[in-house]
Design a protein that fits this description.
heterodimer; A: alpha/beta; Rossmann fold; 3 domains; 5-stranded parallel beta sheet; 3-stranded antiparallel beta sheet; 28 helices; 8 strands; about 5% strand; globular; B: alpha/beta; 5 domains; 31 helices; about 55% helix
Chain lengths: ~575, ~700
């Protein structure tokens, strides 16, 4: 402990010399105990929609200019109790503040680097916002920059003090003059650049409250009772497409494969086509195999086994023992097809050929090899707009496609999209709603032993404190690993204190973006903490406890870039806080 | 799952099943039980069901439907054969070379170097595959060879590679001679990746060669390839391996994959495979020698070639385009039955008469008759079906002959151009398109060619005339003999000159007197030359006359609609679709597809009557790279909300359900993902109109 203590002191003295600006600004509003970790994000989010100038003026940067001198003293005021009183409550706040400093700086460095490395990332459109912020933080830490007034970046003239690359500031000028109406008649490539142009996408800070999303029951009730006014039109489209059935059959007979595209679910169409095929050759009906590519558990082996089953289903041949390797299965099927061709070709109807299960590497090649055989006729449907990119010239040659536009307008929901509510929840970063959020978790936890609850408490608290410190998940992984001891040292204090704090902070503005990723903690770190708290004594026990949570989908795990296992929970911040409240209470 | 009766509904959630009419699905294993029932019908190898459908509003007779089907078979079959011949003739040399190389590899066989053939076969896979197949066929007549086709995806490591080679060779043998107990027992004791199995097999069957044909060689993992070669070279004294590599780039590039030690183990030879180009394929298809039922017009050929040029497409895709054009004409045009030869009266359904009378070319024909004051015939054609039948029968024959002679004339032109060999020869495709569009007559190409012929000296003329001897041109042989006689009569060794050959004469005069005088030139012509010039004039006369007659405009022929297929429409949609555009259009202006009264307004843009996904898509288009879901929802709600609803909560819930559905659909189509930038934000993945 003494060693730790010393190190901590060292660090603090270094901190003092560095004059972290953020703390200074905090002390200004000295009543506010823990806003520091929020600051970077708050600034980012704090910009009201539409009025950018106003937003920037209230952001942190100019404020710290107003009170440059108060910083040091303020810092000391704030700092002193923590030094004398190690176990007091102020110790709790301190590491967070320190972490925030470190993290803000770290984050800004990382952002700057990332920005320059992944310059072409189209999705990260509002990176530029962060970029500016990152630069501000970075610049603020530089002593010589401190004295100069950092003007807000909203001024049209490029700011000399902000060492932004000239190109960036230069770009800002003309963008401002952008007219709201998009230019007409741009060639496709220009359109691409126009639609992808850099710039702040000003969006409001409104959020959907958790309550307003539908539950499964509500959704199904509503959808069942809903009657689409266009149903007759859909039926008409279907009948229109059905008229092409003879043509499709003819094309298939001429060794072409058919690919149906266009908006809307096409499985009714393929089903009708199967009926048609059956009716046409009713005296000895053809074998028709239907594959639903949108079923997420589908494997190519299932398809191949079904084909083989149909193929060997005749006198004189029994189903041989097939290899488990898909390629070898295809080989033996093709072998059988050429050596003893079936009396009728086998029809293979694939719904959603471009769905993820059929998209992966060997599958398209295998299907192409199959349908290159004259005895297999393929009709496939595709749902995504860019599906032709799935096939190269060789595959296309093998597939031998003819394409038909069969727009049906029939909703994908229900079948192709297995669970609409879940998809929407995932989009909104609320995948935890699957287990009915807080209530569901509470229910599960109640039925678990004390140590399992303890584990979950540690996990949630850990994640919350991590969010407080503003660390992103990727960075966190690296950070925690680069010195396990350091990480622990800082987090020891926060662990106990966090619940109260976070509950205090509830309702203070919107929660930070937790959609998609969310914070997570390294498996080993969590284990160590749990052991330290005497929740479990060995890894076996730890695994068992975790498995329970996995089974209830209360824990999500993913792989970090470095290969470390990261654990998180599928909840947003407010929910996490509520869960933690329950656990503590 | 197999025991409970599956309903039609559950089928949608089944990954893969055998379709049955009652909607129930039969898992593959259960089907085995029903085997005995189907026994009777299965064995009789019935002909394929006719897939053409009755046209003429379904009134077409069954005979006509099936004969159209047969006609397609016959017409496309001939074309296909032509294409195959092109491929065979271009690769024949290489095939025999490779086969010889493999045969002779015995003599060059040393202890460790494996005979290896590198086939530079160009970018197309099929070329190499075909060659390997032909080589195998050719060798199998002489020797007992086993061929193993190795595709990169089939082998992942050395073990799987050897296992694969073992399996392929021994399995292939198994199909020929059934259970071979001794071999089986022996091999069963060994691990299946032991090349000893193959060694035993080779000894037992005295296989002369094991040919390893590597497909797509460039995509093999370099170290794996090195390992394989190393292993097989150590077995080379017991197993007679031969390697074939199909190379798409160049041997040098491929060689970089191999270690120097590996290369030392190979005794290589390189074979260049001649490439087949589109022009020669099309020439084979459209040649006058082919038995043609109908012809493809200039428009469709042009668009097919254009597509071929603009996108990297293989020869296979080109032939497929041609095939599809054939299919379309016979499948969709009821009049194509009239191409039947001979054309019996019962084929001529009464509807067909009306169809023919509505053809543009028929009307033109009748108007011509009236212009010629042949009123009786015109009247009969309009009233008497029998007369019309005869007229059509005659007309088709006549028009067919005309088109045939047109193609012949084009072939003649290319033949002449080839023997002129100083002038740039026009590609066959271009000539064909021009000829079929009726643009060749009086064109610069024809004029230039004729002029060049007139300038030919006697020796070149003899070869040209000899070439043209079996062409439809009259008197070619006579003229040929005459030129030869003149040539032998002349004393000098120099060939005779034509008086049109200004170039040659001018050249001579400059040498003689530095004065260029036109009169002097003709004076310089000897008596023999003048006689020869007369012959040249005759040749020119015949050529001009022939071309004038043969180079017709096919679109003016009677019944050209039946004889020439020239529609771009189904072709473009079927081979060059715009799936993304189709989806965007469907979502952006659903009225285009739905044809309902509510959405078919003239003005574009949002409307509450649109399908919900379409509304959301249009809102999605209006937003930037990231989208606030909350705002998206309120916008959506404003549009969809119906005014006259009392229960506001229920209404909102309903709208929210629709919103969720639309949102999930956009995600399914890969247009949005969740964004981590801000809370409750979506990221746009797809942009409009790109």
């Amino acid at each position: 402990m003494s060693l730790k203590r010393k190190r901590q002191d060292d660090r603090e003295s270094i901190k003092e010399n560095e004059q972290p600006v953020l703390n200074g600004s905090q002390t200004d509003a000295s009543l506010n105990l823990h806003p520091a970790p929020e600051t970077p994000q708050k600034r980012r989010r704090g910009r009201p929609p539409g009025s950018t100038n106003k937003a920037k003026s209230t952001s942190g940067t100019p404020r710290k200019q107003d009170v440059p001198q108060s910083q040091r003293s303020g810092r000391k005021l704030f700092e002193s109790p923590s030094k004398t009183n190690a176990d007091g409550p102020s110790e709790i706040g301190n590491p967070i503040v320190r972490n925030a400093d470190r993290s803000a700086r770290r984050k800004s460095v990382r952002n700057l680097i990332e920005r320059s490395v992944t310059a072409g990332d189209l999705q990260e459109e509002n990176e530029e916002d962060e970029d500016l912020l990152a630069r501000q933080i970075w610049d603020a830490e530089e002593p010589e920059e401190n004295d100069q007034p950092v003007s807000s970046d909203e001024e049209p003239i490029p700011d000399p003090t902000v060492p932004v690359t000239p190109s960036k500031t230069g770009r800002k000028g003309p963008r401002r003059k952008r007219t709201p109406t998009p230019p007409q008649d741009l060639p496709p490539h220009e359109q691409f650049f126009f639609q992808n142009r850099a710039g702040n996408n000003k969006t409001s800070n409104n959020t959907i409250s958790s309550l307003s999303l539908l539950s499964h029951e509500q959704y199904h009730k509503q959808i069942k009772s809903y009657k689409d006014p266009h149903e007759s039109s859909y039926a008409y489209l279907h009948s229109l497409h059905s008229r092409s059935f003879p043509q499709w059959r003819f094309e298939l007979s001429q060794s072409f494969s058919i690919c149906l595209y266009g908006y809307g679910s096409k499985r009714h169409l393929t089903d009708s086509f199967a009926k048609y095929l059956y009716a046409q050759e009713s005296s000895s009906p053809p074998k028709i195999i239907v594959t639903n590519g949108y079923i997420s558990t589908l494997t190519i082996r299932q398809v191949l086994t079904t084909i083989a089953g149909v193929l060997y289903d005749r006198p004189g041949s029994s189903l041989p023992k097939l290899s488990t390797q898909p390629q070898e299965m295809v080989d033996s099927i093709l072998h059988e097809l050429t050596n003893s061709p079936p009396p009728h070709p086998i029809y293979l109807l694939i719904n959603s050929l471009d769905a993820p299960p059929l998209r992966r590497f060997p599958t398209p090649a295998l299907v192409a090899q199959l349908c290159a055989s004259p005895h297999i006729r393929l009709l496939a449907t595709c749902d995504t707009p860019n599906f032709p990119l799935l096939w190269d010239t060789n595959l296309r040659d093998q597939y031998n496609w003819v394409f038909h536009d069969t727009t049906t307008f029939i909703s994908y929901a229900g079948v192709e999209i297995e669970d609409v509510v879940e998809e929407v929840n995932e989009l909104m970063g609320r995948s935890g709603r699957r287990i009915k959020g807080k209530e569901g978790v509470g229910f599960v936890l109640k039925s678990l032993p004390e140590n399992a609850r303890g584990l979950y408490r540690v996990l949630v608290a850990e994640l919350l404190s991590q969010q407080d410190s503003g660390l992103d998940d990727d960075l966190e992984g690296a950070y925690l690993r680069d010195g396990d001891g350091d990480g622990n040292e800082y987090d020891d204090g926060t662990l106990i204190g966090t619940p109260q704090k976070s509950s205090q902070r509830r309702g203070k503005g919107p929660p930070p973006a937790a959609a998609g990723g969310g914070p997570c903690i390294e498996y080993r770190t969590l284990y160590q903490k749990v052991v330290e708290e005497f929740i479990c004594s060995n890894e076996m026990g730890f695994r068992q406890l975790l498995k329970e949570f996995h089974d209830h989908q209360m824990v999500v795990s993913r792989r970090h870039v470095t290969g470390a296992e990261m654990l998180g929970v599928p909840f947003r911040r407010d929910e996490m806080e509520a869960i933690l409240d329950d656990l503590m209470g | 799952m197999a025991t409970e009766a599956p309903t039609a509904d559950s089928v949608e959630y089944q990954a893969c099943y055998v379709w049955t009419p009652d909607g129930a699905s039969l898992p593959a294993k259960r089907a085995a039980k029903r085997r005995r029932i189907t026994t009777s019908s299965v064995h009789s190898n019935q002909p394929e069901f006719i897939t053409t459908v009755p046209l003429l509003l379904g009134n077409e007779t069954h005979e006509n439907v099936s004969s159209r089907s047969a006609m397609l078979e016959q017409s496309w079959h001939a074309q296909e054969q032509g294409i195959n011949e092109v491929f065979e003739s271009t690769t024949a040399d290489t095939i025999s070379q490779v086969a010889n190389f493999i045969l002779q590899s015995d003599q060059t066989r040393t202890e460790t170097t494996i005979p290896t053939a590198f086939l530079v076969a160009g970018p197309s896979n099929s070329m190499y595959t075909n060659i390997v197949r032909s080589v195998e066929a050719q060798l199998q007549e002489i020797l007992d060879v086993a061929i193993v086709n190795i595709i990169p995806s089939q082998i992942v490591n050395l073990k799987s590679a050897i296992k694969f080679i073992n399996n392929q060779v021994t399995d292939a043998a198994l199909t020929i001679e059934e259970d071979d107990m001794s071999k089986h027992e022996q091999s069963s004791r060994r691990l299946n990746y032991d090349l000893q199995i193959l060694g035993d097999h080779v000894r037992f069957h005295s296989t002369a060669k094991i040919i390893l044909a590597f497909h797509d060689s460039e995509t093999f993992d370099g170290s794996l390839l090195n390992d394989i070669i190393e292993v097989i070279s150590s077995w080379y004294d017991r197993i007679p391996f031969v390697c074939l590599f199909g190379i798409k780039t160049s041997v040098e590039l491929f060689q970089e994959k191999l270690h120097r030690t590996t290369i030392q183990r190979l005794h290589g030879a390189q074979f260049e495979v001649a490439q087949v180009d589109v022009d020669s394929v099309f020439r084979a298809v459209s040649s006058s020698q082919r038995d043609k039922v109908f012809w493809l017009g200039p428009g469709i050929i042009y668009s097919i070639l254009q597509a071929q040029q603009n996108y990297i497409q293989s020869i296979a895709s080109f032939t497929r385009s041609l095939q599809y054009a054939h299919m379309t004409h016979i499948f969709a045009n009821p009049l194509s039955i009239l191409l039947k030869d001979p054309l019996p009266a019962q084929t001529f359904q009464k509807e067909l008469y009306e169809y023919v009378r509505n053809l543009d070319s028929f009307r033109q024909h009748v108007e011509d008759l009236i212009a010629r004051k042949d009123f009786d015939t015109a009247k009969n054609l309009l009233q008497d079906n029998y007369v019309l039948h005869k007229e059509v029968e005659q007309g088709i024959k006549k028009s067919k002959t005309a088109i045939k002679s047109l193609i012949l004339a084009v072939e003649l032109l290319t033949a002449i151009q080839k023997s002129l060999n100083n002038s740039a020869t026009e590609p066959w495709c271009n000539l064909y398109i021009k000829a079929m569009a009726g643009q060749l007559k009086d064109s610069a190409i024809v004029k230039d060619t004729l002029l060049a012929v007139k300038k030919l000296p006697s020796d070149a003329m003899t070869t040209l005339l000899a070439d043209l001897a079996d062409s439809p041109l009259p008197d070619m042989l006579v003229l040929h003999n005459e030129v030869r006689r003149l040539q032998s009569d002349s004393e000098g060794t120099e060939p005779l000159r034509s008086k049109h050959d200004t170039n040659y004469a001018g050249l001579r005069t400059t040498i003689v007197s530095h004065k260029v005088q036109l009169s002097k030139q003709s004076a310089a012509l000897s008596k023999q030359d003048l006689l020869y010039s007369n012959v040249v004039d005759r040749v020119d006369e015949i050529l001009v006359e022939y071309l004038q007659e043969a180079l017709i405009t096919p679109q003016e022929l009677f019944l050209h609609e039946i004889l020439i297929y020239d529609f771009k429409s189904p072709h473009r949609e079927v081979f060059a679709p715009k799936p993304r555009h189709a989806m965007e259009r469907a979502l952006n202006s659903p009225g285009d597809y739905l044809g309902c009264s509510c959405c078919n307004g003239t003005q574009r843009g949002l409307s509450a009557t649109h399908p919900v996904t379409s509304i959301l898509y249009q809102l999605f288009l209006e937003s930037g790279a990231i989208i606030n879901t909350s705002d998206l929802w309120s916008a959506f709600n404003t549009i969809v909300e119906s005014e006259d609803n009392d229960d506001e909560d229920a209404e909102q819930e309903r709208t929210l359900a629709l919103f969720s559905q639309a949102l999930a659909e956009l995600k399914y189509m890969g247009m949005i993902t969740s964004s981590r930038k801000k809370a409750d934000h979506l990221a746009k993945v797809l942009w409009n109109g790109l």
